[in-house]
Amino acid sequence: MNGLYFRAxxxxxxxxNKGQVxxxxxxxxxxxxxxxQGGIDFGERPSEAILxxxxxxxxxxxxxxxxxxxxxxxxxxxxxxxxxxxxxxxNCRVPIIGQTQKWFIYALLDENAIDLDKxxxxxxxxxxxxxxxxxxxxxxxxxxxxYINLFAxxxxxxxxxxxxxxxxxx
Length: 170
Prior knowledge:
Blueprint: E1 5-15, E2 21-26, E3 33-34, E4 36-39, H1 46-58, E5 65-70, E6 75-78, E7 85-89, E8 92-108, E9 124-130, H2 132-138, H3 141-169
Parallel strand pairs: 1-8
Antiparallel strand pairs: 1-4, 2-3, 2-9, 5-8, 6-8, 7-8
Helix pairs in contact: 2-3
């Protein structure tokens, strides 16, 4: 597949103090839910890109988030089933077949910080909190395998985070 690329991107699993994950319903595909994710701008570090994406898509400021973990590797998915699409990036057309993403987990410190009406991007029309295993049921088919892989890693991290949080709160 010469000349076809995976777009560099980031994703965030945002958890509340009950260990539930934030799912966002896409405006353009009603009934399709996902985590915050988006492309990395030129010259931007993944850790910067994810905080920007969270702010743009949910209006959550970085001071309302606590970093929990980052996935040790980059995860990829194809959304074209091998058929490239032209993706517009800064006045340049690049044939891409999917995304390769750096994933992060953040704890949300204030659930009132979410305001989709104030979000810069109007990519999402609603949100809900769900158990992680339920997130896999709501995601688009081409992302399902990635979410299953994320679950294996994130479930352990989230449980450890909640354990530490409860120890501190006691």
